Structure formats: structure tokens, C-alpha cells
Amino acid sequence: MFWLPCGRRFLHYSWKLFARPRVQSRLPALPSHLHIMTQTTNGSDWSRKIRDEISKAVIGQDAVIERLLVSLLANGHVLLEGMPGLAKTLLVKSLGTALGVQFERIQFTPDLLPSDVVGTMVFSPKDGAFTPHHGPIFANLVLADEINRAPAKVQSALLEAMQERQVTIGGTTHPLPQPFLVMATQNPVEQEGTYALPEAQTDRFLFKLIVDYPTLDEETQMMARWGQVTRQPVLDPVSGGAELVELRGAVDRIHVSPAVQGYILALVRATRDLARPVKGRTRHLSFGASPRASLALYQAGRALAWLRGEDYLSPQIIQEIAPDVLRHRVGLTYEAEAEDITADAIVAQVIAQTAVPTATNGAKN
Question: Which residue from 157, 178, 241, 308 lies 20 to 30 Å from 190 (Cα-Cα)?
């Protein structure tokens, strides 16, 4: 405040009278999918701490580890296929420890019974009644080790659990703990004593991942680190089930444009077109991918985009994960097997022949 002379008097004034009026900004609101830009940075942080912990026990397999993290975020099961001795079991066990969730391992053998997986009714002499005894399926992360060494009736015991997240014991339905994920390992079907998984079960896996041999440098590191018998890795939990559920909410906010949605549908439906008999064309697929494949590409694509700090799903990410999503969802004909045509080759053909949306025609909008 201040005083100004006015004749014989002094008038009292306030600086507010001379202050420049404030102009409030009326900028347009950002699209909803852009509000998560600050949240997407958490994806790399979460991924890094999980990877660092797993690397204490597993050297290499970076691409497989990334897909496993994607499956956790997308709430999908994973099937890992590879020759014995490639650390498939160790990888999943290390992931369970790093996540800090309840972990159970089921070793599938030819004499395994369905009740050994889901549980059974047990008579209690004290109460004089049957009570449900939960099997090892009641865990957050279940390792189905060498799943294709058990007969079909045992493999099918997982169907309800994988799809419905519940099991039935003695006519009563029991919900499974959340989060709940099955990570199964299998040896190639050419190995002795293995059974091919039924299509109804393989379709419930988000990914089928091929675990390959380590590189020369990675195998050299293994000898240097684990050459001593007394030296064993010790892992600590660095995350938790509650954090995983919270992160899934951020994944659900990743933007997917109508153009990219159409691209996903075009890829999946192209596999069905190849399975239709056409005069003059050798049919290499007996059946194409189901609608679960479309959902898997959509959900897994958003999860991978979030992990990499993107705020929208791009066609390039869809192309990258398409082999892992589709290779176990298409059926090869005898003609394809005779010509040594693989499911991955069919998927590559579908990707090459499907038009890709760009930024100019709606991939980001």
C-alpha cells in the first residue's frame, strides 16, 4: 500500500489497482493416452530390477526374460520349449523368487494324476467329513515342468485353472490366488517319452517361447561364474504381487489406435485364410489362429510397449511378438511338414503380405 498527495489530503491506494490482470491459460486438454508419459518410465525401472536379480542365476536369454515380463503384465501363461539343460526351469524359479510371490513347482511325469495337480477331497476323522485338500496349483506362479511328459488327462487338468483362474474339487469351485500364472516347460516332441499338447491347451498360452543355446560369450561366463561347486546364486525378492497388479493398470492405459487394431485382426484372419482349401494352392495350415490370438497380440503388445517406455502400441511391436503369439496357434498340414515348412515361416509370410499402418494413416491416432 502507499499514499499519494491530492491537494491538502493524502489518498490511500493499493498496488492491486495497478497490477496487470492475470490471464489464465486455456490450452486444449491432452489426449487421455498421453497422460501416462510419466508413468511409462516406471516400466524400465521395474524391468531392470527384475532382470538384475534374475541375472544372478541366469546368464543371457534376454529376449526370453523380456517376454516373461510381458506375460506377467498381460496376465498370460507361457510355454517354454527347448532342449534339456538350457536353464528353462532355473529361469522360471528365479523369476518367482525375484517377484516375491508364492511359487510352486509341479514335475510332470507319466504316473502323475489330476488330483496331484489340483487337489482332492480328504476325509477328516476328527470332523467325520471330507474336506478339500489344495494341490500345488494354488499358488501365484506355477511351474509346470516338462508338461509334455504327462498323459493328456493330467494336462487337461490345467485347462480350467488356466482359463477360469479356478479349479473344481469335489464338485465345489475354488478360486485361485491372484495373480495366477502358469509357466510350463517342455522338450521338443521328437524327444522320447513326450506327448503332444492338445490344441485346446496350447491355445491358452499367451506365448510359446523357443529357448535356444547360449552364445560363446555367455557360456564362457557360465564357466567363470559357476565353475566352483561351492558357489551358488542367492536371489532376493525385489517386487510383489500387489505391485504387479498395480502395474497392469498402467498397461491398460496404453493407447491402441483403430488402425493398429485393424492390423492385429488382419494378421490373425490371414492365418485362417491360409487354412481354407483353394483350388490350385497347396494348403499348409489345417487351422488358423483363434480369437484368443487377437486378444493376445493386443494385450501383450501393450505390455511390451509399456516396458519400453512407449505410450502407444505400434505395428512394429506387433510384428515382433507375432511369432511368439501365433506359432502354437496354427496347425501345420502333412504337406507343410513334408516340405519342412515351419509355423514361424507361415507367420513370417503372413506378416510380409499384410499391409502395415503408418503414422500418416492412423497408427498413432
Answer: 157
